[in-house]
Design a protein that fits this description.
The protein is an alpha/beta fold and about 350 residues long. The chain has 10 helices and 13 strands. The radius of gyration is 20 Å and the shape is globular.
Length: about 350
């Protein structure tokens, strides 16, 4: 399998384009807040830059059914990709965990920058104010993530994770209307829309391993638009880029997609090293495969590949496909046991 790293493309240092820099974004409140952050960061570095924000409603935003019916997370990115290739926008802002990890960007596009990583943890928002361990039997927890569903089932099998669609504001309203007992959302997402006060409990990563690319905003550009690429690169955080490359390399090597319960996070270690914790779950949370690898921070592709191979040796491909060909061992991260 050919692996292409999603790393910022090389390009000359910035020169301000003569035309307006058009930044494309989804039209949700969170997406607009993220894009406003990007615009402010660019203007801080290039005060004379003329920036226009272009709102694009994606098929994933319009359709409230199962994402699998639209081809997965690509439903949130394909319209932005198309607008970029048609020359309608110059830069697109993506919440990286919403960018499909099992395939490369469309030909001609590249990730030019990854912004400094925000909080990678999951958050519980409950109507009662109760923490996860305090929720009553069969309490309903709304989440669109199979990763979260699997980890809830593994650690709290008496709770009832059920799918929910819509942006964060829509989900919070459904919670307030009594449709769910609690929600599980990203800490960073709630912070971006100034709703962090709604967080009941911030969940530890040793129990709830984060999504690949959690807490990261990525900027894509046309690869041949060198001046635009160089401007976007002004916002690139090298440490975050290394973490993202390791995580997404692992995901792509596994052949995982948005329907696969896969989690991972990379972290800087002393002496120029980078670690990667990666997990694959059965959908019911009964089986958890885990790998922990450490490598040179300058070679995140090798680190991601090593983690993927460690999981594959344990049977990750069969678990992802839902057709295990051998008995797999259940492990509980961090030595923890279900309540």
């Amino acid at each position: 399998m050919e692996i292409k790293a999603d790393h910022p493309a090389p390009g000359p240092r910035s020169t301000v384009p003569s035309q307006v820099l058009r930044i494309g974004t989804r039209s949700s409140r969170m997406a607009l807040a993220q894009t406003a952050r990007v615009k402010a960061a660019l203007l801080e570095r290039l005060p004379d830059l003329d920036v226009e924000i272009v709102e694009i409603t994606t098929s994933g935003d319009r359709f409230m059914g199962k994402l699998s019916e639209l081809g997965g997370k690509g439903a949130f990115t394909k319209e932005l990709d198309r607008a970029m290739l048609l020359g309608e926008i110059d830069v697109a802002v993506h919440c990286l965990k919403d960018v499909p990890g099992d395939r490369s960007l469309p030909e001609g596009l590249t990730f030019a920058a990854y912004l400094q990583r925000d909080d990678i943890r999951d958050a519980l928002v409950s109507r009662s104010g109760q923490a996860l361990a305090e929720l009553p039997f069969a309490a309903t927890i709304g989440t669109s993530s199979v990763r979260r569903q699997a980890q809830i089932s593994a650690h709290f099998p008496d709770l009832n994770p059920i799918p929910i669609r819509g942006n964060a504001d829509t989900r919070l309203k459904k919670l307030d209307d009594g449709e769910y007992d609690a929600l599980m959302l990203a800490v960073s997402g709630l912070q971006r829309i100034n709703q962090e006060h709604r967080i009941t409990e911030t969940l530890p990563i040793d129990r709830f391993c984060p999504a690949v690319g959690a807490g990261v905003l990525g900027l894509t550009c046309r690869q041949d638009a060198k001046a635009i690429v160089s401007i976007a690169q002004l916002l690139n955080d090298e440490e975050t880029a290394r973490q993202v490359i390791a995580e997404r390399t692992m995901l792509r090597q596994l052949g995982g997609n948005c329907h696969s319960p896969i989690a991972a996070y990379a972290a800087a270690e002393p002496n120029g090293l980078l670690s990667l914790t990666a997990m694959v779950f059965s959908r019911d949370g009964a089986t958890i495969l885990e790998a922990f690898e450490v490598g040179d921070q300058l070679d995140p592709i090798a680190l991601g590949t090593n983690a993927a191979q460690a999981l594959i040796r344990q049977g990750a491909r069969e678990l992802i496909d839902g057709t295990p060909s051998r008995k797999l061992t259940h492990t509980t991260p961090g030595g923890l046991t279900p309540r």
